[in-house]
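Raw record, unedited: Golgi transport 1A
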Amino acid sequence: MVAITEFQKIGIGVMGFGLFFLLFGVLLYFDSVLLAFGNILFLTGLTFITGFKRTAHFFFQRHKFRGSFFFLGGVSLVLCRWPIIGMLVESYGFVLLFRSFFPMVLGFVLSAVNIPFLNAFFSNSSSMV
């Protein structure tokens, strides 16, 4: 079993608060202060979880430069109080950064149909249509 350090526990909490503020900022019609606070907390939590060196290595790899540029540029735009444009740029950067991860997520979601409880749920829902 993997041991979780105290910094990683704090990072999970900080990252959770960051995601909450991001969601809340979007729900309140792109409130720039909430989005900026959420972005700062999210990046701080990510740094606490993975460590400063690994976070810097992830964002500044040669093949991920464009995604990092758009993601961090979007964060900068949100901090400069351009929330809608910043979130669009940030979302594009997020997709570029994690595009190699999406097929694995899709495979996991599609394999979740083989779980007995979900299999029964999906078989019942398709018969209603």
